[in-house]
Amino acid sequence: MTDGSRIADTTAVRARFGARAPVLMETTLLRRRAVDKLGELGPVSDWLFTDEALQQATAAPVALHRAGRLAAAGAVVHDATCSVGTELAALHGSGVRALGSDIDPVRLAMARHNVGSRVDLCRADALRPVTRDTVVVVDPARRRGGRRQFSPEDYQPGLGALFDTYRGRDLVVKCAPGIDFEQVGRLGFEGEIEVTSYRGSVREACLWSAGLAEPGVRRRASVLDRGEQLTDAEPDDCPVAPVGRWIVDPDGAVVRSGLVRHYGARHGLWQLDPDIAYLSGDELPPEVRGFEVLEQLDFDERRLRRALAAADCGAVEILVRGVSVDPDALRRRLRLAGGRSLSVVITRLGTGPAGRAIAYVCRASR
Ligand SMILES: C[S@@+](CC[C@H](N)C(=O)[O-])C[C@H]1O[C@@H](n2cnc3c(N)ncnc32)[C@H](O)[C@@H]1O
């Protein structure tokens, strides 16, 4: 089943396994994809999946992170939308007593195969509680008929219905990272929202009901790539000042959780503008990729092209915040031909008539 052998292999598998050949081949390919996404959970190359179930599965490091937090809380966990068992495997592997349910009998059968007899499973609607004294974890489906659902009321099960069903109980709900936090509040949620990133992209916003939240914490950013966590209980004294040696573009989890100032305060950085998420400092926080400022100019395309050509730039990475510039289109228009790779950070400083767009020509730390 490599690209080169697929046609011949398909013919051979059809001849040997007849009508079961497509399922067999799909399972083989899904297992290969699963190793990258779920490999930390154990021997997933033996697991059963559907394509959609694998797409929906929480990546292993994210599932293990949640499981670690539940283990620390000493919880018995009911995963009420367990699908093929990803989060159950993470919970079990983290020493948490867990059981699972789902409304879909095929996924439950796959979960039984995947997690074995070590975890209890049953078929149930998450909106009809079947356990007591458990922490209920729900990861609602966010697609219907193949289309992504953006409103939390259109999740399956819907967020409002979940809050009503489990009011007063410990509840953890995995949501899309872009979920409207104010809407979540209007639906009656009062706990902590944890935004988690992994491999440089924001993976989810997880709602932890008040009983599971750390006292005084309403927002948390968890950056799994470097094991950093930040909450809104920390100080946010982050000044606004002109650019220093470095520009830092904070991780998406920090930005999405609204903790840019807290992050700046923790690492001795300052904001370039009170409304813009770029930070600056004379030293980079550990393990962070930053941009060393070589030159700054009022943003103007011709002027920027001249500055980059003078710096012998041939490849440019363009970061943009607060100005309407399409980085890909600008990169194409710049038509650079030099030998160096540089980065350009374009942003707005100040608002209204006093606002101006600035371009910082930089060298990336890595
Ligand atoms: C996004 S998937 C969960 C993925 C899972 N957390 C994982 O990491 O593999 C959503 C699951 O919710 C299930 N589901 C949808 N509505 C449900 C309901 N009312 N009650 C129980 N399960 C439901 C679907 O069958 C699906 O398996």
List its salient traits.
366 residues, alpha/beta, 9-stranded mixed β-sheet
Task: Describe what you observe in this structure.
With 366 residues, the protein is of the alpha/beta class. The chain contains 12 helices and 18 strands. The protein has helices at residues 6-17, 21-38, 51-56, 60-72, 86-93, 105-115, 159-165, 181-186, 252-256, 260-267, 301-310, 327-334, and strands spanning 77-79, 98-102, 120-123, 135-138, 143-144, 147-148, 171-175, 192-198, 201-208, 219-223, 228-231, 246-248, 270-271, 279-281, 291-298, 313-321, 340-349, 356-364. The strands form 3 sheets. It has a 9-stranded mixed β-sheet. It has a 7-stranded mixed β-sheet with strand order 13-14-12-15-18-17-16, covered by helices on one side. Helix 1 crosses helix 2 (21-38) and helix 4 (60-72) packs across helix 5 (86-93). The model has no long low-confidence stretch (mean pLDDT 96).
Please compute the radius of gyration using only Cα atoms.
24 Å
Which runs of at least 5 residues are low in confidence (pLDDT < 50)? none
Q: How would you state the average pLDDT, rounded? A: 96
Shape: globular
The run of helices and strands is HHHHEHEHEEEEHEHEEEEEHHEEEHEHEE
Bound molecules: S-adenosylmethionine
Which band does the percent of strand residues land in?
Answer: 25-35%
- Alpha plus pi helix count: 12
How are the strands of the biggest sheet laid out side by side?
Answer: 3-2-1-4-7-9-8-10-11
Helix/strand-derived category reads: alpha/beta
**Can you count the beta strands?**
18
Mind summarizing the main beta sheet?
9 strands, mixed
Question: What's the end-to-end separation, in Å?
Answer: 37 Å
Helix % is: 25-40%
